Amino acid sequence: MRGRLLSLLALTSSLGGTQILWAADMPLKAPVVAPPSAEYNWAGWYAGGNIGYGWGSSSDPGISIFDPINPGTGFPYIGFASYFASGGNVIADLKPTGMIGGGEIGFNWTLAPAWVAGLVTDFQGSGMKNGVTNTVTPPVLGAITTNQSNSEQIDWFGTFRAKVGYAQNNWLLYGTGGLAYGHVATSGSFVSVGILDFTGSNSTTRVGWAAGAGLDYGLTSNWVVGVEYLYVDLGDVSYTETQPAVAPSTLTISNHATAQIARASLDYKF
Prior knowledge:
- By secondary structure, the protein is mainly beta.
- The chain has a single domain, classed as Beta Barrel (Porin), CATH 2.40.160.
- It is 12% helix and 60% strand.
- The chain has an eight-stranded antiparallel barrel.
- Strand 5 and strand 6 form a beta hairpin.
- The longest helix has 24 residues.
- The relative contact order is 0.20.
């Protein structure tokens, strides 16, 4: 009996030691795995406002002349062609500048975890303008001194564009391009003091194109701030200078209306 009891105690002791060793091999607590961070949701409607600055590229003015022969003399009424050919062309090349501001509304789709596409339209009020008057006396005997002015102003413009961007959580880098439209006013004069005074102007709405790039940052799930560069091309805008009381001759000036825009925006995402 005593031998059986000793054998049982020895077996129990042996099993207990095995359990202690096995327990020592077990981790005291399972490691806590942090949940993956939620990606920022760029999809949906948004609307907001913007403010910035615009500067035009060269207006590269072109000149077109209508100067018929005066039947009484056999010579052109004014002689624009010979005057300009002798060094009398100083029509100013314009680069309008000024503040711009407006609003935008758009919609984004999430194409893949890192890719976003969208459509956006905006409308801008513009203070971009430039006007220059140059004076010239061609270096030929008997040449007349003239003051030649040229001006251009972009009153307002808007765009309708597509956007494609690459997103990294709260950051979105994108390219954009599409339709542009705007209202441009141009005017000018060709004045030979005390002799002739040709003046003209034109105000028109033009359709062109726009392209650029931008960077947005999601401050919260609803508020987004951004910066954007945009090039807007509204094509050529012409005006014709006339002096019908003196002669049927005309002088037409064509300016190329462009704008480079840098602006900051604040949008609310619905």
